[in-house]
């Protein structure tokens, strides 16, 4: 759990938005998803990503849409399709290129051309690291040329892949990791090319990669030193960046509801959506920096209004590790769960160690003792109830989210360490903050009358919550709420739950007190271990 003190620091207001042009920009798109590789390890969610993005684009009425799946994603075909999109669209159009699949890197082919000494590339379906198959890749300098050829058209490039690196926190294998989007052959990373079938990049290609292209907005799944995992989202294997982008096209990024998504809105949506979905394990990158007022997608789909503040609670897919006969008896004692095997659990309870593990590989709680004991089952039920609330708040926060981040970074923390939770992006100024401990115990944090906390905070943030790591260890989730109206009744009822394992009651209170209001949610996990 965490001991906390709040310190607010006023930040600058939001940047002004430029009005969208009266004429709606035509959109053309090339969407690529590769699960089936002939030599490289397969993926499970890239085709799901591509089909979801294509469906979202169709929902916008995009007619010039090319979808390449698995073996259809061949190098010459992709290049030809992109250039055909350029020829078939007017200069004021927007072109979208999305890639879901493996990435890799090799030593730079032209000495001194890369700051890190490495060339990155996207791995196509029939790629091989030696001989003719080496041609089935798209190098970073080639992609830069393709982007430059599209000017002055606006270009959005989504690369849901990675090259190499590490995870921000250790991944617990009991969660059943789906793999990452860094190419490997027989478990060995692809990191060099032999008998290269591609010619060396031209001087013009190297120049295109080196210069900033003002017409291009580029989103990468992760930083160069991180791995992009595949995860279960809505019970399907996915890449988080593609999932967030598809939802942005469906209107979730349109914060001001004007039918236009600016670069700033798209960036804010993707960063917060991916952070929430993967509990801070993945940090999307965007280039260039700034230019938040530039309109990128015009129009986007209208957002349907949710019938209530939080979506209805569905059963949590739970897997129990232990002796089959004992597992069957234990399963009968829980509410709000659906028992599953290896495929698609949201939570895994290891009855031997007492650990409860999330589907993104984090130990949420450690509950030692006899798994059949009523107290043990009660505490595990508390973890289930808390995780149900976390998932429901994450879903609601997709519509209007606060920006939360852990400083100095997303990793496992240990007893006595201090971290801070930065909170920003709020348009509502009335503020409420609670913590949900690993077992669902509610800690009411803000505002506190005895501390004389003001009910309102300045618009935009940032605000920082200072944290000290204390036992019990596991997952703390901070739930922040901003509203344009006072939340006195909600705060009174939440304060009454302080110190109680009452996650299920929190959901009911939020719906009762805030339904129909334009509230903003933020939720962020902070993970601690005794080791």
Automatic annotation (TrEMBL):
Keyword field contains Signal: yes
Signal sequence residues: 1-25
KW Signal (keyword) present: yes
The DUF4384 domain, residue ranges: 413-486
Ranges for domain Peptidase C14 caspase: 29-287
InterPro entries the UniProt entry points to: Caspase-like_dom_sf, DUF4384, EF_Hand_1_Ca_BS, Metacaspase, Pept_C14_caspase
Keyword tags: Signal
Domain of life: Bacteria
SUPFAM superfamilies listed in its UniProt record: Caspase-like
PANTHER family on file: METACASPASE-1, METACASPASE-4
Name of the protein this chain belongs to: Caspase family protein
Organism whose genome encodes this protein: Azospirillum endophyticum
Upper classification of the organism: Bacteria, Pseudomonadati, Pseudomonadota, Alphaproteobacteria, Rhodospirillales
């Amino acid at each position: 759990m965490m001991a906390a003190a709040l310190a607010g620091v006023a930040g600058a207001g939001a940047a002004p938005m430029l009005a969208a042009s009266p004429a709606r920009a035509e959109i053309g798109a090339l969407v690529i998803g590769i699960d089936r590789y002939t030599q490289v390890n397969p993926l499970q969610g890239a085709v799901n990503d591509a089909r979801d993005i294509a469906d979202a684009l169709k929902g916008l009425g995009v007619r010039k849409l090319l979808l390449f799946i698995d073996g259809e994603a061949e190098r010459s075909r992709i290049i030809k399709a992109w250039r055909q999109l350029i020829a078939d669209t007017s200069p004021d159009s927007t072109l979208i290129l999305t890639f879901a699949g493996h990435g890799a890197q090799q030593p730079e082919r032209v000495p001194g051309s890369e700051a890190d000494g490495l060339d990155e590339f996207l791995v196509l379906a029939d790629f091989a690291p030696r001989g003719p198959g080496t041609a089935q890749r798209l190098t970073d300098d080639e992609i830069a040329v393709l982007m430059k050829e599209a000017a002055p058209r606006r270009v959005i490039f989504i690369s849901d892949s990675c090259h190499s690196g590490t995870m921000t926190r250790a991944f617990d294998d009991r969660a059943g990791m789906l793999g990452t989007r860094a190419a490997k052959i027989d478990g060995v990373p692809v990191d060099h090319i032999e008998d290269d079938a591609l010619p060396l990049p031209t001087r013009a290609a190297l120049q295109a990669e080196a210069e900033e292209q003002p017409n291009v907005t580029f989103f990468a799944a992760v930083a160069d030193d991180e791995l992009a995992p595949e995860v279960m989202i809505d019970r399907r294997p996915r890449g988080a960046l593609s999932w967030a982008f598809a939802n942005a096209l469906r209107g979730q990024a349109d914060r001001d509801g004007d039918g236009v998504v600016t670069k700033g809105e798209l960036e804010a949506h993707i960063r917060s959506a991916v952070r929430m979905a993967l509990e801070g394990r993945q940090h999307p990158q965007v280039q260039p920096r700034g230019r938040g007022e530039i309109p990128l997608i015009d129009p986007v789909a209208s957002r349907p209004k949710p019938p209530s503040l939080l979506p209805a609670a569905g059963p949590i897919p739970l897997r129990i590790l232990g002796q089959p006969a004992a597992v069957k008896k234990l399963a009968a004692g829980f509410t709000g769960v659906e028992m599953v095997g290896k495929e698609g659990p949201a939570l895994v309870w290891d009855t031997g160690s007492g650990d409860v593990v999330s589907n993104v590989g984090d130990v949420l709680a450690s509950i030692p003792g006899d798994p059949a004991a009523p107290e043990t089952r009660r505490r595990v039920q508390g973890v289930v109830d808390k995780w149900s609330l976390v998932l429901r708040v994450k879903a609601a926060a997709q519509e209007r989210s606060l920006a939360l981040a852990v400083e100095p970074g997303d990793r496992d923390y240990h007893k006595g360490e201090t971290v801070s939770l930065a909170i920003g992006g709020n348009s509502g100024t009335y503020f409420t903050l609670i913590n949900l401990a690993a077992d669902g115990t509610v800690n009411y944090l803000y505002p506190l009358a005895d501390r004389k906390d003001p009910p309102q905070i300045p618009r935009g943030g940032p605000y920082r919550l200072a944290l000290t790591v204390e036992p019990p260890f596991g997952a703390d989730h901070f739930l922040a709420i901003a509203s344009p109206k006072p939340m006195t009744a909600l705060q009174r009822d939440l304060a009454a739950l302080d110190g109680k394992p009452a996650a299920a009651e929190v959901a009911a209170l939020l719906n009762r007190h805030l339904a129909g209001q334009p509230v903003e949610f933020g939720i962020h996990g902070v993970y601690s271990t005794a080791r």
